[in-house]
User: Fold Cytosolic fatty-acid binding proteins domain-containing protein from Phrynocephalus forsythii.
Amino acid sequence: MPADFNGTWNLVRSENFEGYMLALGIDFATRMIAKMLKPQKVVKQEGDSFTISTTSTFRNYFVQFTIGEEFEEDNKGLDNRKCKSVVTWDNDKLVCVQTGEKKNRGWTHWIEGDELYLELRCEGEVSTQVFKRA
Ligand code: VLZ
Assistant:
């Protein structure tokens, strides 16, 4: 029985989101706004099917996937680069590989105690975001 990510999660702390955004080529003005945000994630998990909505006062992002099934991701409102993404289980971690123009792009979600973790990777940058249940 894999981990259960279902729920509504609020950002409580973040490391190096700036570096991640820089690696994605996000412009200065957008970075200044985005680094102040406290996004909320709503995760819906039914078996191996997921939706993850990330919302904030500035921009929202939505992704839907099934474990092991490659999908086209448009990253609309982020860097807008299309990539081919696939999410798999690594024990209780959800690992996404985003293949496209940017090397080593992807993310990992896991739960530690009552906190939801998200590691965001792009090129050489790693950002960690931590969420608590709303
Ligand atoms: O999360 O890829 O949960 O796709 C920040 C929105 C969302 C604020 C960051 C706007 C996306 C930023 C993180 C403008 C540059 C992400 C996945 C895993 C779901």
In short: The longest helix spans residues 17-23. Residues 21, 26, 30, 34, 37, 39, 41, 52, 54, 56, 58-59, 61, 63, 78, 107, 118, 120 surround 1,3-dihydroxypropan-2-yl dodecanoate (CB under 6 Å). The longest strand covers residues 7-15. The beta strands are 7-15, 40-46, 49-55, 61-66, 71-73, 83-90, 93-99, 106-112, 115-122, 125-133.
